[in-house]
Amino acid sequence: MAVCIGFIGKENSPLFLRCINQSQELQFHYIMHTCIDFVEEKIIQSNKSGSDVRELYLGLLYSSEEVKAYGFVTNTKIKIVIIIDSTNSLLRDNEIRAIFRKLHNAYTELVCNPFYTPGDPITSK
Amino acid sequence: MADDALFDFLHMEIVSHVTKSDAGLLQDGDEAMSKLEQIGYSTGYRFIERLTKDLSRFKDELEVMKAICKDFWSAVFKKQVDNLRTNHQGVYVLQDNKFRFLASISNSRQYLELAPKYLVFTCGLLRGALASLGLTCIVTAEVTTMPACKFQVHLQRA
Q1: Does the domain made of A1-110 have the CATH classification 3.30.450.70?
Q2: Do A54 and B59 touch (CB under 8 A)?
Q3: Closest to B53 (Cβ–Cβ): which among A50, A55, A108?
């Protein structure tokens, strides 16, 4: 079960953050912020290695005693980060990719909403 | 398929509506052009999000431009851009020899002075799409003979 999900915008501004435990929200804001660095590192790394097929899914970004973070970047430079409790039984790669796909779809649909200006904090119900 | 015709007619109506509602003002239709461009911009921005959902990540600008010429153009106009030229300094020229909106207007130089109105929306569309992918740019269009037209994209570097 993911403990926290975050969307980071193009200029690295936070667009959306949702956690299971509301009291830990600030802590997750910090973790999200550090994840930006990891995401950029991965992007630069894959750019340099010049692999043929570049994926949107970035994989495990960061692992500590308490949490693991997984990243995903879209072509429009929107970053999605999922934070999972380390004590949980390990979720398989496929499942994580499925979660990211659903989040990406939800974001795409949000962008098509005429009442949403891209770049604003997301306040969807 | 009725879809293509629908888009063409809707576009023509938008152009005529915006130009007519601006007819009383003295700005010589400039405001209408910016409105049209802005409409194109938001459309392009949102549309590209949907389109690039399943494509693999882009490595550099040239790849972005190529994807725009192929996937984006086919999705919107049901054909690919006929010619893409660049000077590798951030200027790209996309040439379409049978631009959809102009094809129904004329096949020669008739109505040439009225053609730019119909290209403004597409300029905005390109600008929005590139902005969404992280490239700020200026897009201009020119028509010498209908229905061919050229879109010039100047990428702004930081």
Answers
A1: yes
A2: yes
A3: A108
Interface touch B134/A74, C-beta < 8 Å? no
ipTM of the complex: 0.72
- Distance from B49 to chain A by nearest Cα, in Å? 6
pLDDT tens per residue, range A74-85: 877 788 888 887
Work out how many CB contacts closer than 8 A connect A with B.
Answer: 47
Question: B43: which chain A residues are within 8 Å (Cβ-Cβ)?
Answer: none
pTM of the model: 0.79
Task: Check if the beta carbon of residue B155 is closer than 8 Å to that of residue B140.
Answer: no
Quick check: B45 contacting A, CB < 8 Å? yes
Indicate which CATH number applies to the domain containing B112.
Answer: 3.30.1380.20
**Domain count across chain B:** 1
Chain B: residue whose CA lies nearest to A48: B59
Q: What is the DSSP string of chain A?
A: -EEEEEEE-TTS-EEEEEESSGGGHHHHHHHHHHHHHHHHHHHHHHHHHT-SS--SEEEEEEE-SSEEEEEEE-TTS-EEEEEEETTSPPPPHHHHHHHHHHHHHHHHHHHT-TT--TTSPP---
Domain that holds residue B146: 2-155
